[in-house]
Design a protein that fits this description.
The complex is a heterodimer of chains A (331) and B (350). Chain A has 331 residues and is α/β, with parallel strands linked by helices. In chain A, 33% of the residues lie in helices and 24% in strands. In chain A, strand 4 and strand 5 (75-76) form a beta hairpin. Classes of the chains: A alpha/beta (331), B mainly alpha (350).
Chain lengths: 331, 350
């Protein structure tokens, strides 16, 4: 499979009154055609900002894409003109956002909101767009789609609205779907339904997905590969089984220790990761995870480890990952 | 509750509101010393004023007439007639004649009824040239000016937030807000009438020269324009940061569509809410400007009738202002329901 999206050394900053917030600090990753990539990390680690930068949807100012390349089908999306980026947005790359309650325009009907991308990108007439919108709503499992097309967002429940968002994103059959924590605002049963819908549609439409979440449980059954982000860096990337079976970064290990598992004997308590992520305004020169790491050494304080290949398709940004492996062996 | 029921209920509510306004105005008006027959600084001749009081029923008690009631009882009249005698008082008589559509005679415009003073026109001029028509025209012009000037200014300064354009608009807004309209009025008169001599403010008939409307319209509408600009700007900024605007951009829509289709309708909801009361405020708030620019409208009439204790005119105009404000608020509620589908009239969201 060919590479669909290639992000190289992407840097995004926010210029605020308190100083420059370094939200994304040289992130490099790629998404193959039809691949599902999970982007995992705690709040504020730069997951959303990196994908919004890909789409050039960072509010500017205060945001600023300070460097890097975003190659999509050979074109650098960061340098193409506004018209060209708009022809990609919603058409070849579509997004589903976190909060379905606020992500739909409250004063426009569902028909208008789904139909407008069809009219824009596929040149459909109003009637064609309407017919297609009904089909899309059926596809994402909205009952009585014909009768609901003229409804307004407030007439739908949260889960239904997220289905509408997905229908909207898939309307032009994009090659890449970016889902920015699409299930965070939903309750668990709805969450499972939404994941099932996305899995099914991925099989049917064959698109690639970038799925952002802070919930490793959600991503386990969905992703082919996982990028773990911390303080604006990708600190580990590996196929999903490797991440769960052979985590190499102390942070990844910590994340896995903080979620309950059914396949292990019951422990007394889950182990949280102590401390807080570093302040993104005054970034440390060394490893950003230094303060919270139990494997830290003198070197970690002064030098930030690069993301280096540790095994086949597995890279980690840690000077001491071998110690992590040993420690895991003992446990 | 359906929309129709809601509207009917709101309309019916206007009745007790107007009654209360009438009652309060009546009390305050009669508590104020002096009467319609006094000519400053002298009190009217006693015999003449007694005679006039009798003619217009001002010699009767204000609210209840127990004397007439006792008289009726003595004469052995029935319950209904005695009751009628009991409420044969100034307030009740006014309300009853009001219900018949009769606003009563003016006490100061001799031989003319209040309706004639407010709605009437001299010679064969069209109806909108009456006093009320003149004020309404000025109010509507001022509102149109305020919206046509304020809304675009607010939109532009939001889209260009914290740039020179935004600051320039803030400057205009501060001036519009900060300078009282009577100062602004005199300022513009000095500049345009005295220095430049392009506008005549002495003895002008506003219906003869349409250019004469410019100055009073601007002076009256400027504070409202300033407010509309600020309101639009704040509301736009709020909408611009919302998630659904990001969604709209993520669809690949152009800036024009994002602004016109996705932002404006949301951003203008509070502005529309404000437009109704603003019109009522402009129509009722033009006393000084009418006086300053010699506009023969009801604002000018109102001030004069208050100082001359022209009771019936005061009552009629106060009630008119109250009705106007009540209707403006009602109109806002109705329009709101069309603009924002989330508002279901009279129904709580489930």
């Amino acid at each position: 499979m060919g590479t669909l999206l290639e992000v190289k050394d992407l840097r995004t900053e926010f210029h605020t009154q308190d100083g420059v917030v370094h939200a994304v600090n040289g992130v490099t990753f790629a998404v193959d055609e039809g691949e599902t990539l999970g982007l995992v990390g705690e709040s504020g680690c730069g997951k959303s900002v990196s994908v919004l930068s890909v789409m050039r949807l960072i509010p500017q100012p205060p945001g600023k894409i300070a460097g890097g390349q975003v190659l999509f089908q050979g074109r650098d999306l960061l340098t193409v003109d506004d018209e060209e980026i708009r022809s990609v947005r919603g058409n070849k790359i579509a997004m589903v956002f976190q909060d379905p309650m606020t992500s739909l325009n409250p004063v426009l009907t569902i028909d208008t909101q789904i139909g407008e991308s069809l009219e824009l990108h596929l040149g459909m007439t109003k009637e064609q767009a309407r017919k297609r919108s009904v089909e899309l709503l059926k596809m994402v499992g909205i009952p009585e789609a014909e009768g609901r097309i003229e409804d307004y967002p407030h007439q739908f429940s949260g889960g239904m609205r997220q289905r509408v968002m997905i229908a909207m994103a898939l309307s032009c059959t994009p090659q890449l779907l970016i889902a920015d924590e699409p299930t965070t605002a939903l309750d668990v049963t709805i969450l499972a339904q939404i994941i099932d819908i996305v899995k099914r549609l991925k099989r049917e439409l064959g698109m690639a997905i970038i799925w952002i979440t802070h919930d490793l449980g959600v991503i386990a059954g969905l992703a082919d590969r996982i990028n773990v982000m911390y303080a604006g860096f990708i600190i580990e990337t590996a196929p999903v089984k490797e991440i769960f079976g052979n985590p190499l970064h102390p942070y990844t290990l910590g994340l896995l220790g903080s979620i309950p598992r059914l396949d292990e004997t019951r422990k007394e308590k889950l182990t949280p990761i102590e401390g807080l992520p570093p302040d993104l305004v005054t970034m440390p020169t060394g490893c950003p995870f230094y303060d919270r790491c139990r494997f830290r050494t003198e070197k970690c304080l002064h030098e930030n480890p690069p993301l280096e290949v540790s095994a086949v398709r597995h890279s980690v940004a840690c000077w001491n990952w071998q110690d992590v492996v040993k420690a895991r062996g003992r446990a | 509750m359906t929309r129709t029921q809601f509207i009917i209920r709101r309309v019916l509510w206007i009745i007790p509101v107007l009654f209360s306004v009438a009652l309060i105005t009546f009390i305050v008006m009669h508590a104020t010393p002096g009467g319609p027959w006094d000519v400053d600084p002298n009190k009217a001749d006693r015999r003449i004023s007694d005679q006039l009081d009798k003619t217009f029923g001002l010699n009767k008690p204000l609210f209840f007439n127990p004397e007439a009631f006792q008289q009726a009882q003595k004469e052995g009249r029935g319950v209904i007639e005695s009751g009628q005698a009991f409420i044969d008082a100034q307030f009740e008589n006014y309300i009853f004649s009001l219900l018949r559509g009769d606003l009563g005679p003016s006490y100061r415009y001799r031989g003319r009824s209040v309706s004639d003073v407010i709605f009437g026109v001299q010679d064969d001029k069209p109806a909108w040239q009456s006093k009320i028509g003149t004020t309404a025209t000025l109010g509507i012009l001022a509102l149109l000016f305020a919206l046509a000037f304020g809304i675009p200014m607010g939109i532009i300064s939001a889209l260009k937030q914290n740039t020179a354009v935004d600051y320039a608009s803030l400057f205009v807004v501060t001036i519009g807000y900060g300078i009282p309209s009577f100062v602004m009025g005199i300022l513009l008169i000095i500049v345009f009438a005295v220095w430049l001599g392009v506008i005549n403010v002495i003895e002008i008939d506003y219906w003869q020269r349409w250019q004469s409307w410019f100055l009073p319209t601007i002076v009256l509408g400027l504070p409202t324009a300033a407010f509309a600009a600020r309101l639009t700007r704040a509301s736009m900024l709020d909408v611009m940061r919302s998630d659904y605007i990001r969604t709209a951009r993520a669809k690949g829509l152009g800036e024009r569509v994002v602004v016109l289709r996705h932002m404006l309708r949301n951003a203008l909801i509070p502005v529309v809410t404000f437009a109704g009361p603003a019109l009522a405020g402009l129509v009722t708030g033009s006393f000084i400007i009418e006086n300053q620019f010699g506009v023969a409208g009801i604002g000018d009439l109102f001030v004069r009738s208050v100082s001359r204790r022209d009771y019936t005119v005061i009552m009629a105009l106060t009630l008119f202002y109250a009705l106007l404000i009540a209707l403006a608020n009602l109109a806002v509620d109705i329009i709101y329901g069309f603009l924002d589908p989330r508002i279901q009239m009279g129904k709580k969201e489930g």
